[in-house]
Amino acid sequence: MKPRLLFASWLSFAAFVFTPTLATAVEGTTKLFPAVNGETARLSIHGAADLQAMEPLIRDFQEIAPDITIDYSDYVTNELHRKASAACEQNTSLGDLWLSSSLDQLVSLANNGCASAYSSSETAQVPKWANWRDEVFGFTFEPAVFVYNARYVPSSDVPRSRAELADLLRRRLDYYEGRVGTFDIRTSGVGYLLAFSDARQATATYGRLLESMSRADVKVSCCTGTILQEIASGRIYLAYNMIGSYSYAAAQANPDLRVVIPRDYALILSRGVLIPKTARRPDLARRFLDYLLSKRGQDLARRKAFFFAEKGNIPEGVDGPSTLGKLSFVQPIRIGPALLAAQDEAQRRRFIDDWSHSMLSNPGSRPPGTGKP
Q1: How far is CA 41 from the centre of its chain?
Q2: Torsion of CA 110, 114, 120, 121, to 10 degrees
Q3: What is the DSSP letter of 315?
């Protein structure tokens, strides 16, 4: 039994919107947000963060800075990293601010001399685990979660740990075969980072889960949006290692979708931001960065964009502890030099090869399609 790939038409997926508040986008798509009161300056942001999640933050920033026009270019993680690396190497401009959930890629860019350092009263409030050399900052607190469709997964089957998920797939293989989804780490930067972090966090448990998912003919995809679409349609029943913010937005719009924070350990992504050394308007980039880290920006992000936060209650309806904060099983992915190991080319290739041989029938294949990481 081997996994099947999620093949999505590039055009049909680009047009697909899986919730009223969270849309997918063609990579490299740029949206212009004109200045509210007449343009005196323009900020260019290149991000692997969904446009619909970023839009409330951009528009709120423009309430504070009504003379600034913002263009936001939307990418998948690997494509942003490729273009950012090329711009850095060639010393050419690629926007004024880079955003990505693939923290290892941002740390690698900073380590290669692509970032400008910045410190302010706002950056000083960032936890040490989410600030590397005042060059890469985390501005969200998003758990990796399980997502399932309650029409097809009975309450007695709902897993709340990786061991429970592995046991479920072995115990009810006939029912869940071909009905489980996860990231294809060959095409998703954030999927690779989560898998790499899993392997380091609990090697034995992760190996056992890989074996169970392979036996269950897991479906893999580059993108959260594709997998959430499959769950909503009932073509798959549950998914592993989904980004919490996008999953919660989908669940808000579809009451059949449920979100579970695993109890053995919960990996926490902090979506990262970096000011490139080639920015044409680093002054505007610094203003927007300060806004993202400010109380106003953080409050808005929690209410309208990314939903989860280090402080305060988890969103209503999420199956998990009442808060995340300092719980022992919450494991933030630290932004720092340890992530460079994930980007070491030889180690990366070896890890992906091992994963592919465990999970995929044809390790050299690459599924078509695009969408959000």
Answers
A1: 30
A2: -30
A3: P
Q: How many residues does the chain have?
A: 373
* DSSP H helix total and E strand total for the chain: 14, 14
What number of other Cβ atoms are within 10 A of residue 97's Cβ?
Answer: 24
pLDDT of residue 22: 39
Which two structure tokens, joined as six digits, stand for 158? 């709902």
State the first-to-last Cα distance of the chain, in angstroms, to the nearest integer.
Answer: 27
- Is residue 224 within 8 A of residue 243, CB to CB? The reply is yes
Q: Who's near 136: CB < 8 A, 6+ residues apart?
A: 103, 106, 107, 110, 115, 272, 273, 274, 335
Please list, residue by residue across 260-275, b when 16 or more beta carbons sit within 10 angstroms of its beta carbon and e when fewer do: bbbbebbbbbbbbbbb
- At 207, list the tokens: 């190996």
This prediction's pTM: 0.81
What is the longest distance spanned by two Cα atoms in the chain? 63
Distance CA 365, CA 373 (A): 19
User: Residue 350's Cα: distance from chain center in Å?
Assistant: 23
Q: Tell me the two tokens of residue 190.
A: 């954030």
Helices (H), the chain: 10-15, 51-64, 77-90, 103-111, 162-171, 173-176, 189-201, 203-215, 224-233, 244-253, 282-293, 295-300, 340-343, 345-359
Q: What is the DSSP string of 232-266?
A: HHTSS-EEEEEEHHHHHHHHHH-TTEEEE--SS-E
Distance CA 347, CA 339 (A): 12
Structure tokens at 311: 């402080």
Q: Which residues of the chain have pLDDT under 70?
A: 1-28, 325-328, 361-373
Summarised one tens digit per residue, pLDDT across range 8-25 is: 333 233 333 333 333 344
Please give the pLDDT value at position 5: 43
Tokens at 44, concatenated: 């260019």
Under DSSP, the state recorded for 156 is G
What tokens were used for 128? 């040490």
